[in-house]
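Sequence dictates fold. Below is an illustrative record:

_____
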Amino acid sequence: MLSCLCQTTECHTLEAESHAVRYSRYSEDIERAMKTFVASLSEHDRRGYAAIEAFKLGHGGIGYIADLLGCSERTVRRGLAELRNPPPRLPPGRSRKKGAVANDAATA
C-alpha cells in the first residue's frame, strides 16, 4: 500500500480505513455458511478452500481462517503451497495416497 507523505487528517483517515478493510471479518452468516460448507469437503479440498479464503483476505488471513474453520495455520500454509505447486492427482475414490504400511503389505 502506498502511503501519502503529507500529514493531513484526510490522508490518515483513508490509510486507516484501507488498513481496516484488510483485517475485516466476514459476517456471522457468512462464517456459518463457510463452516457448514467446509464440513462437507474432503481433507484436501478443505485445505484448498482455507488457502483460497486466506489468500483473498491478505495479511492476517491465515490466522483468521484457521481459527474460523478450526484448522491449524500450518494446514492453511500447506494449502497455499499446494495452490502454487499442485500435488499429483489421486486415483478416483481416493482422498489420500497409500501409506508405507499399505505399500509394504502389498509387496509382501
Observations:
- Residues 27-86 form one domain.
- The first helix runs from residue 9 to 22.
